[in-house]
Structure formats: C-alpha cells, structure tokens
C-alpha cells in the first residue's frame, strides 16, 4: 500500500542534487549542485583523457562525477566541522582522507 507524499514523517528531509556533465574532448567536467533547503553547496571536478587512449566518454563521466562527489563530501564535512565549532564544541579529530589530495 502506498501513502501520499505529504504524509511523510517530520524527521524525513529531502535534499536535491543535480549533476551536470560537460564533455569537450579530451576533458570532461562535472558540476554538482546540492540544495538542502537551507543551503546550496556546489562542487566541480574534471577528468582528462590521455591523448593516446581510446575515447570512451563513459569513463570520463565516471571519473569526473566521482571526483565531484568526493569533493562534495569533503565540503559537507568541512561545513559540519565549522557548524560544530560555532556551537562551541571542542575540536574533533579530522576524518581520514577520502581520496588523495589530487582531486
């Protein structure tokens, strides 16, 4: 049995994420816009095909999108750390890196 969307519990939130991919061979760019209802967070990342490799657009899409999602995750963690600090909580140990510094 389904229930109307309006009957969702109050604790449920919905964040909207849009992922835009743009390819200009040999580069693919991914831009992510996350709308939380309270804030908008935006990240970008790129992938570049080696000129000696075959052109497979899906690979560039996956690399650029994956890198942009990792950057989004890092941005959300930085935002949360700033919010925690603003609340006066003691400084926490930073999380382990999600990816190499070269995004």
TrEMBL record:
Organism the protein comes from: Streptomyces spiralis
Region Disordered: start-end pairs: 84-103
Record-linked InterPro entries: Rv2632c-like (IPR015057), Rv2632c-like_sf (IPR038070)
Listed name of the protein: DUF1876 domain-containing protein
Short name of one Pfam family: Rv2632c-like
Biased composition, class Pro residues, residue ranges: 92-103
Gene3D superfamilies: Rv1738
Coiled coil: none
Domain of life the protein comes from: Bacteria
């Amino acid at each position: 049995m389904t229930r109307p969307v309006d009957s969702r519990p109050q604790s449920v939130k919905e964040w909207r994420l849009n992922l835009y991919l743009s390819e200009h061979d040999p580069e693919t760019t991914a831009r992510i816009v996350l709308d939380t209802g309270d804030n908008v967070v935006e990240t970008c990342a790129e992938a570049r095909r080696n000129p000696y490799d075959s052109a497979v657009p899906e690979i560039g899409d996956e690399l650029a999108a994956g890198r942009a999602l990792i950057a989004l995750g890092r941005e959300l963690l930085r935002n949360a750390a700033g919010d925690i600090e603003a609340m006066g909580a003691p400084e926490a140990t930073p999380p382990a890196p999600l990816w190499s510094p070269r995004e």
